[in-house]
Amino acid sequence: MNTITVLLLLLGLHMAVTERIRPAIHSLAAQGILLGLLPFLAAPVPAWRAAGLGLATVAVKSVAIPLILTRAVNRLEIGQESESLLSTKTVILLTGALTLSAFVACARFGLSGQDRLGAAAGLTLLFSGLLMMTTRVKAVSQVIGFVVLENGIFLFGAASGSDFTLPIELGIFLDLFVAVFLMGILMLKIQRAFTHMDVRKIHTLKD
After folding, report:
1. Are 35 and 55 in contact (CB under 8 A)?
2. Which long-range contacts (CB under 8 A, 24 or more apart) does 65-71 make?
3. How far lies 128's CA from each of 25, 65, 169, 171, 174, in Å?
């Protein structure tokens, strides 16, 4: 469990600081596989429920969403640089500060051992996703940040002992898949209308 948590944290940190889109998508897919193992390890749920939730997690987070993002990158001919409003050094410092804040906060929650590590890693992913959504220039990178944020919530819930309820989790996965699917369509429309995916230029548009 601790090994999976550490790998999830490292993949999240890699996506937060990397300047390349395709490696970030690959890390997102790897995170989906690792998250699919959590239902088997984190909570005493029935085997059939853990298997269903694990398969749904892998199908949505490791296959469907990365496939949509990869197709968007290919069809829209988006450059491979993710581009950020902040310098690479600033992003690294902010990511480090957010990681430290997450661990300090979880220590104050009174959690210990494996629970503290999982909760802190979940909070770090949540903060990293928010950072990506607010500082990245390209819409694809912001979508990746959105999924990382949701992955953080999933990991935090698993670490805090929340029971995995199959219908609820499947509903969340469906919502996430639909959201990313619609974002993919929206990106295609934006690219056709404005010939770019730079959100800074879109923000300057007026009625």
Report:
1. no
2. 65/28, 65/32, 65/147, 65/176, 65/177, 65/180, 66/25, 66/26, 66/28, 66/29, 66/32, 68/180, 68/181, 68/184, 69/25, 69/28, 69/140, 69/143, 69/144, 69/180, 69/184, 70/22, 70/25, 71/184
3. 15, 18, 22, 24, 23
Give the pLDDT confidence of 97-120 residue by residue, as tens digits.
999 998 888 887 766 666 788 888
pLDDT digits (tens, 9 = 90+) for 84-98: 788 888 989 999 999
The pLDDT value recorded for residue 135 is 87
Neighbours of 72 (CB within 10 A): 24
The pTM is what? Answer: 0.79
Single-letter amino acid code for the residue at 57 = T
Q: Name the residue among 76, 73, 94 with its Cα closest to residue 85.
A: 94
Tokens found for residue 33 = 């596989």
**Size (the chain), residues:** 207
Question: Mean pLDDT, the chain, as a whole number?
Answer: 79
Please tell me the distance from the alpha carbon of residue 52 to that of residue 50, in angstroms, as a whole number.
Answer: 6
Q: By the 8 A CB rule, do 17 and 92 touch? A: yes
